[in-house]
Amino acid sequence: MGAADNPLTPSLSEELPILSKLQDYGYSEEADSPVFLATIMDSMGDKGLSLLESLVNQLADFSENSESLNKTISDLKEQLDQEKRLTHNLKAENLQLSEENARMRKQIEQLGGKEKLTNDRAEAEEEQLRQWRAQSLHQLQELERMNQALRAVISRHTCPAPPSNTAVNTENISGKERPCGGYIVLSQALDPASGTTCSTANELKPMRLEQKDDTDRIIQSFQELRHDDAENDKDEDSDLHRSLMETKAELSAKNREVERLSSLLKDSAKMLQSVNEENKKVEAKCPKEKSDTDKSVDKKKVQDLEQKLESLLKTLKEQEHIISGLHLQLEQKVEELCFITDEKVVGEEALSASQLECRHLSSLIKDLNKKVNEMQSALDTRTRERDTAIAGEKQLAEAKELAEESFQKKCNDLSSELQASQKRQEMVLQEHDGLKKKIEEVNLKYEQALEDLQKCQKQLESAEKDVQELKALVTQLDLTREELVEKLRLTMTERIVLENQVASLEMELVRISKESDLRNSEMEQLHTLLQGVSKERDQIHAEVQSLKERLNVEESTRKAAEDRCALKAVELENLGEHLNSLMSDFKLVKTQLVTAISERENLVEDLKNLTNRLNYCEQVICAKEEEEKALSNSYDQLMEEHQQLKLAAIELGTQVQQQSFQCQNAEELLKTAQEHSNFLEEECRKLKDDLKEMEKQVEMLSRSLSQQSSFLDSMQREKTALISQLSSSKQTNLELEGRNTTLIRELAAIESNNQLLANMIQGKIQEAESVASRYRLEHERVRELEQLVTCFRAQEHQLQLESKDSGAKTAILKERLLALEEQVRLLQRCKDSQREEISRLSTLLKEKSEEESRRLNSLHAHAHGHDGHINNGIADSTNSKSKLQELELKTVSLAADLSKTASLYKDCFSRLQKAESQCAEQRNEYDHVLFILSKVDEDRLQLQQRCRQLVNVAGKSKLVNTNGKLDSITELPTENDKAKDASHGMKG
């Protein structure tokens, strides 16, 4: 664990050097008596106590952390209990619905058996059946709507709804196999003459079409409801999965906190061991020159310190026991979470079974539809024979009226049952709404906590981004400064070269004017030497051509190098595009795995920094290529003007080498970026593997839940049996309790008076003793706190002095930085002025070159003048070489000076950063000390208030004790007499 994770490390690191100073007081391992430890503590003064006080503060912080952990564990327990209650209620609702389905099936079977009438009566009752079927269809549809609504409510709490393909078709269901099959209700009145209904086959056709339209509409509405339920269930499953992942993350965080606390305990135990060992060593080295009174005082101090150390060790052991208990509680929580997931899987299996039942019922309904169609065809044939059977129907009219009355009674019973089921449904919906409201409140609290965390994270990220931007600005300023210094150096060298060339050209002009006057007199003597000079001229031309060929070869090599650089630039662009595509893919993966890749955000920021660096390198390469082009143009002009072929070739070779080095650096950067991208891909694969393992664990949990479902059913059966037994036993208990209440009241009234008096006397005595002991303890604590306040204020004064010194240092460093920035500005101004001078000198050179070309044309008419000009050109070339060497030496010295200034600038910047970090640390320490002092002042005020309260309570308790003793002496015999009378009454 680092210092950032452990809030107690700064105080320990500040106070540990005190132990190293014990050697100055006679530190050894030979003495055994406790007197030497007391002498050391006296010589150390308040430093030894500060160590013990720091340990006490650490243990107090540790106890606070353990209390916070206990609170979080209790909150988790409450959440688990709520989830268990929800699952229990849902299971009870499932059982009720299954019982109602079974009861309805039994009614269907019973009513189907009653409807099997004889063939003679069937012919007479066919007309009544047609009227009954329309109403029975309507009633069945309403019952199915109720059942499906209840099942949808259950499926929302357990698992997704079944697919919409399993919708129930309720068209043309026969009356024999309906749940209301035996309940015939006539929708039309009987004919008074014949005793039968007056409907015909022509009137039944529109009724059938209306029934089919109604059934189609009902089926569509059911399909839409199931589709909506399926979508809602999917959303709820995703929310449950998220909540499980969040609980796992919270458990991992709690495990980390427990590990951190255990490491703190180990560190504190090590510190105590080191203190004990060093105390033993110090005892051996302390002198034996104190009086008996001092020794007795020292012994008392040592004994107090040893008692404090023993109490600290006890508290450490207790905290270790607490941590072990917390570990056990965490394991129990994990087991409870597994149990909840198992229960969820059981609910899903129960829902799948209910879906299978629905499919089976749909198949039965289809069969019934076929039978209804057959019956309808038979009814159409028999309506034609109705006129012939009117006489027989008159005799059976009375029997039909009796049957109608029985059917009406049954229908009324069914309507009452429907109303009861509707009331139950309303109760269940109300409970469901209450649970939804509770869940929404919990989700709102959780979302508020998440928003707070996100705000904190955003603030941290913004602060880190600001720091990185400042660092990038500093590095960019350093680079720009170095570039400006290099350009200044180049301009200075160019200026010196041009000035030297101008001076040499002026000298040459004077010399050439003098020599031209001399050579005009010698022209006649040198005609004879023209032939030899022409031969030498031919040789020189041959040499010039060979040099030109070499130049062409070198230019071709240069072009090839430039082509290679262009290809590498294209490759860099392609690689940049490839990196951009990888970044987009990585963002897509990140959106899918937000919960698992939260800790990898730092790597994404590193990738962004690498891309920025690559872009910066590309910009630098482009800038350098432009500079190279400008330099090549300038070199071409110089070669055309001065014909210094060798120097130009050497400079071109150096440029090619620089480009090769730059290309190599760019390739190395690309390799590092590729390695980083491969590393990120491997981490993504690992995360995918972890997700697969988590899915396997979820499957294992679902299997274990299916095994425990049978055990739950058996326990519920046992519960019902026990409830029946309890109901029988409660009745007997109520009778006995009615008899005992009268007797218990009399006894309670007598005993309560005796116990009140005895408890009052004992309580007041104990309160007086506890008040006295608390007053002593708190008086001693007040003294110790006053000593702590004095120590902390001395440390505060020292910290203020140190902060003033650090502020002065930072001001000096800032002044140095400002001076360096002014130097950079002056260098830029010098650079601008030198550029202007270079432009002016270049114009002068052009003018002088034109004048020289004119003079040379005049001299070319004479052969001797031509030979002298060639000799002068050779001498000028030698002089220019020597001047170039001198200029290179000067540039080397300037570069060394610039490197020294850069190193000074970096040192100043590093010192500034160190000073700022030290100031920040001192401010944190100062704030920590102020916080401790505020706590001490608050504790002191609270202790003073408590002391005052305890003094007042002690005075009051003494008065009450004296009065209570007198009253108890007078009242005791009367209460004993009452008890005897009550016992005699019980016997009678």
TrEMBL record:
Its main location: cytoplasm. Residues 276-299, 969-988 are annotated as: Disordered. GO terms for cellular component: centriole. Belongs to the CEP135/TSGA10 family. InterPro entries: Centriole_BasalBody_StrucProt. The lineage of its organism: Eukaryota, Viridiplantae, Streptophyta, Embryophyta, Tracheophyta. Residues 52-153, 358-385, 432-564, 593-704, 817-851 form a coiled coil. It is found in: Cytoplasm, Cytoskeleton, Microtubule organizing center, Centrosome, Centriole. Keywords: Coiled coil, Cytoplasm, Cytoskeleton. This is Uncharacterized protein. Residues 277-299, 975-988 have a biased composition (Basic and acidic residues).
